[in-house]
Amino acid sequence: MPLTDDMHLISVDDHLVEPPTLWLDRLPAQYRDAGPRIIDLPIQSRPDDPPANVWQYEGKLFPQIGLNAVAGKDPKDYGTEPLRYTDMIPGCYEPHARVIDMDIDGVQAALCFPSFPRFAGTVFLQADDKALALLCVQAWNDFMIDEWCAAAPDRLIPIVIMPLWDVDACVAELRRTVAKGARAVSFSENPAGLGLPSFHTAHWDPFLSACEEADVPLCLHFGSSGQAPQTAPEAPFAVTITLFGCNSMYSTADLLFSPVFHRHPRLKIAMAEGGIGWVPYILERADYVWNRHRFYQNVDQRTPPSELFAEHMFGCFIDDVHGLGSRYEIGLSRILWEADYPHSDSNWPNSRKRAIEVFADIPDAEVRQMVETNSRELFNFPR
Amino acid sequence: MPLTDDMHLISVDDHLVEPPTLWLDRLPAQYRDAGPRIIDLPIQSRPDDPPANVWQYEGKLFPQIGLNAVAGKDPKDYGTEPLRYTDMIPGCYEPHARVIDMDIDGVQAALCFPSFPRFAGTVFLQADDKALALLCVQAWNDFMIDEWCAAAPDRLIPIVIMPLWDVDACVAELRRTVAKGARAVSFSENPAGLGLPSFHTAHWDPFLSACEEADVPLCLHFGSSGQAPQTAPEAPFAVTITLFGCNSMYSTADLLFSPVFHRHPRLKIAMAEGGIGWVPYILERADYVWNRHRFYQNVDQRTPPSELFAEHMFGCFIDDVHGLGSRYEIGLSRILWEADYPHSDSNWPNSRKRAIEVFADIPDAEVRQMVETNSRELFNFPR
């Protein structure tokens, strides 16, 4: 009897599309023009169509409003990025509608990553005016806590982004948002990919210590390093989508051989959307390398990588049959479920139906742990 | 009773270090100076030590003679690249000594990749004088067939490299070497990484057709795209070693979504040293992506990636417990064993001993298939 009716599905990787006035509603008057806002842009190749909705920020245009928000579409229609809010179902950008879509999907609670700011808010890292950028980060976090999650506090888990360019500002923003309810931070899977100091430096220590003190985990979404797996200019995008989990493998190996967990023994990190089927391979390989190569390198000499993983890290999966078959190797306590609404990996509106199939041969207690208990514990989000 | 005494271990990934006069012995007189030869170079920081042996080619120095040829060393002494031939055991560069080392290791037959030319001979691709470079490729192939493998034709499997800069020359060199006994080609895991046309172009078709006609498989060694997994400048090299299998994942996804197998229905490709534990995850993920994203992309609309893999590709492993546990998902016929002598991943002189442990719970017939039969068939290398 897998996935019984009383089990809550908690998704640790969903996405929201920012409503058009998120920043207009929150930024001081002098920043209204430069801050992110939606403008209407006629489509040159289709002049008879209604104009597209496009983010404008510091005078630059950001044409992808929804990062492939395809929930409810037929796969045959994928590939066409939504051009307007009216091309999306309202659950993408409106919290009450989202909760209804979660009901349809059989999902109890969700952690929603940003769209326009990118998964870890890196659009603001790349901005010119960092005073404005800090206000933009704060505005997104306030929206997340005060408006998005406030619409259904038992259904939506507050996750916040950080002003990545300033580690002291990260500490301050973490404390400010935790005080008002933040339960997770969306951070970069590899800051070095963004031109920032890597996990192998001491740079992030004050922030990581603040996360430990607040008992707030980091969620590292694949792609949040600004890097995407690419093989060749002509390769179909399917290659990149297939390989995105490699970003999470990179990040996992990078962290396991870094000083992060030795300096921060209570830190927890979840690899959002990375899948779990690769975890046994990477941990076995990391231990193999550690056994042979630790002696001449600046690597912890006592704790094998697999033990660090078991203590600190979590794999997250949407639909990973091989990964579930390997759940004892990964560790039942290390596995979190996700729905990925409204992206193309999602099974919406059939997430629960698909989960019932995927969990068919797995004992009750194990299913409950993976879909609900692990997440409630990690995010301090009790029933 | 796994790995019984009558089963031959066939290693599809070992390495040889080129003897100092390989090219001097074979190049026409006018090329003796510019062609690869070993020179003695005093070590500035240790002037009392004997000089290092260094390859010189077209006036440039290539300080790594052995690409981490550490067979026989204690892991505590890894990290120090051999500086001289006398720092290595003779089996690295001398075929009769190699066969003795294989006997010690319990290995019946081996396929040996180049060292100085790099896995797919890409040093010659980057050379200035392409007439000389072609002669260098031919010299290596002649050494491989006439000297290395001729020393023990039932123990050493001839693998050749190609003049990658000229597809017609590749066809000619393939035919020339096949006529004298070549059984495999060491090719690039991703030519696009080398600045060459990718697998998604028609560029390689004449060469791939020639491989099909000759029934010669391609061996794509990880790293042969010129790319190495890197996360940060300060990351210990252990991160890169742990992640090298991601190169094989990239290459597998790249090929499965390319036209290569549709255009070349008899082509076979082995992913040398890539490991196998990741194969079920990547195939499941590739099929998932294919199911959702094939419609709007230039992707084969009929054959799921997992079926293409089952028809065309092989995973190769040294010591992959998770991969062996997943052998039915990977496909027993898709798995090849390897020893990796004399590199740091190798278990030499305990390869057979370690294999007995790894195969302990696997039925006889399955073990034989993975360690011997699959390879003998793929490389046309009967008992």
Word description of this protein:
The structure is a homodimer of 383-residue chains. Chain A contains 13 helices and twelve strands. Chain A is an alpha/beta fold. Chain A has one domain (10-31, 89-378): TIM Barrel, CATH 3.20.20.140. The relative contact order of chain A is 0.15. The interface between A and B is large, with 65 and 65 residues.
Q: What's the structural blueprint in terms of helices and strands?
A:
2 copies of one chain form a homodimer.
Chain A: E1 10-15, E2 37-41, E3 52-57, E4 60-62, H1 95-105, E5 109-113, H2 122-125, H3 130-148, E6 156-157, E7 159-160, H4 167-179, E8 184-187, H5 205-214, E9 218-221, H6 237-256, H7 260-263, E10 269-272, H8 279-293, H9 305-312, E11 313-317, H10 321-325, H11 327-330, E12 335-337, H12 351-358, H13 364-378
Parallel strand pairs in A: 1-5, 5-6, 7-8, 8-9, 9-10, 10-11, 11-12
Antiparallel strand pairs in A: 2-3, 3-4
Helix pairs in contact in A: 4-5, 6-8
Q: Please, what is the oligomeric state?
A: homodimer
Number of helices of chain A: 13
The CATH topology of chain A comes to: TIM Barrel
CATH architecture of chain A: Alpha-Beta Barrel
The CATH C-level class name of chain A: Alpha Beta
Shape of chain A: globular
| Strand order within the widest beta sheet of chain A | 7-8-9-10-11-12
Cα gyration radius of chain A (Å): 20 Å
Total tally of structural domains of chain A: 1
* CA(first)-CA(last) distance of chain A: 22 Å
Largest interface: A-B, 65 and 65 residues
Determine the mean pLDDT of chain A: 95
